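Good morning N.,

You mentioned wanting to compare the apo and holo forms, so I went ahead and generated the holo version with manganese (II) ion. This is what I fed in:
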Amino acid sequence: MYRTTIGLEIHVQLKTKSKMFCRCSNEGENAPPNTTVCPICLGHPGVLPVLNAQAVEYGALMGLALNCTLPDTSKFDRKNYFYPDLPKGYQISQYDAPIAINGFVDLIFPENTTQRKTARIRINRLHLEEDAAKLLHAPDAGASLVDFNRSSTPLAEIVTEPDFQTASEAKYFLQELRLLARYMNISTADMEKGHLRCDANISVQLLENGIEVTTPISEIKNLNSFKSVERALEYEGKRLYEEWTSGSDAIRKRTYKITVGWDDVQGKTSVQRWKENAHDYRYFPEPDLPPSRMSEEYREELRMKMPELPTKKRIRFAQEYELPQADCALLVESQALGIFFEQAVSELDSWLDTLHADTPDTRTKGIKLLSNWLINKFTPLLTESRVSIENNTVTPENFAELIACLVTSEINSTVGQQVLAEMIQTKQSPKTIIKEKNLSQVSDSGELEKICTAILEANQDAVANFKAGKESVLMFLVGQVMKEMKGRAQPEAVKELLKAVLTGK
Ligand code: ZN
Ligand code: MN
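and this is what came out, ligand included:
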C-alpha cells in the first residue's frame, strides 16, 4: 500500500492581442512561420521590451479567480539557459516577485470518483512570462526548423502546492482550471492546442517498519491531455513504489528529482534528465523593465470585472432551481449554457404566469424539465449540427415556450422533439410549428373515440384475447392508436379510453 503526493505546474497561454513585450500579433499560430516577428521577439541585441498591459490584466484577473493576493509590487527577471528556441539566451519571467500569490481552488469531485469528496488546493503563485519559439524537427530533411511566431507569447504559469492525493484529483483540478480561464476570458485553454500545458510532480509515501518514508520526486513532462495527466501520474506512482520496494539502492540514495517524459502511445514514462538544475538558471532582475506597482484602484477595477465563478454558480443553481448536483455541474460547464439556462428560466416564468400555471410545484417541475431538455435533447442536437450554444438560432424565449407547451401537456415528449428539431432548422417559434403542422394533442375526445373504435374494429383478435384475460394486448392497442394519432395523444388517456370501451364501463 502506498499514498501519492502530487503538485502541478501549469502554463496558460494568454489570448492577448499582441505579444508580451512587443506589438507583434499574438495569433502567429495561424500565420505562416516566422511572419509575426520583430527584432524584440527575435531577441536581437540592444532592443527594449515594453510590458503588455493586457497581459498584466489577464494574469491579475486569473490570479483573482484563483483567490490569490495581488502584491503591491511585482517584477521581471531573466532566467538564463541556452536552447535553440530561445535566441536571447534567457527567458523573461518572474522569480521572487510574481504578480499573484497564496490562492486556493475549492474542488467538489463528481460522486464515486475519488476518495475525498472535496479538497482545497492551495495555489503557491501565478507568474507572468514569455513563451519560447517552436522547434519543428524534420528528420527527413536532417534538420530542425524554428518558428519564432510563438516567441514571446504571454503565459501565466500557475504553481500549486503538493495538495493532490490521487491522479484523478489532479485531472479534475486541471479541468476546473480550464473552466476558470474560460470564464475569465483570458485564454482558450485548449490542451490539444498547447494553450494549457501541464507538468506534474509526484512522490510516493509508504510505511517501512512502521515508519513513513517518502520517495524522491519525479517531474513528468509532456502531458497534453487530461487523460494523459491521469494515466501518467498513476503509472509513475506505481513505478516509484515498485522501484523503492524492489530494494534498489539508487532511488533510496537519490537526493534530487528526476525529469521523466510521458509516452502516451506506449503508456509509460522514461527518464529525460537525472540532474536537478533549477539552481543553474542564475536568475537576476530584468534591467530593461522597471518593477510594476499595483494600486488599490486598479485592483478594485479588476474585481468589478469578475464574473460569477463556477464554484459559486453550481451552489446557487442547486439552491435556486432545486436541481441535482450533476445537472448543475453540466449547466455551469459552459458559461454560455448557464446564461442560456437562466434566461430560459425567466422566460418560462412569464409563460407559466400568462398560462396561470405558476404554482411553486409547476415551476419546480418546469425548471427540471427545462434543464433536462437543455442537457439531454437540445445540446446533443446542436452538437450533431456542429453549432455552439452561442451561435445557435433558438432563442431562450422560444425554448421556454416549448417547455411551457410540454408542462401544460399541449404536446407530448415525442412531438416536443420533433418541434425542437424544426425550431433549430426554421428559427420559427414552437407555437407556430405546432399550429402549422397540427401537432397539438387532441383534447377533443370525440376524434379520439372515433379512432379507438376503428382500431378495435380492425384488431378483433386482440380484442378477443383481451376479453379472454390477456391484458397485455392493451399496450399493443394503445400503440396502434398512438401511431394513428401520430403522437398527438397522451398514452395514458388512450389506455383509459380503450379500457373503458372494452370493459363497457
Ligand atoms: Zn515582436
Ligand atoms: Mn515556465
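The radius of gyration is 31 Å.

Happy to go through it together on a call whenever suits you.

Best,
F.
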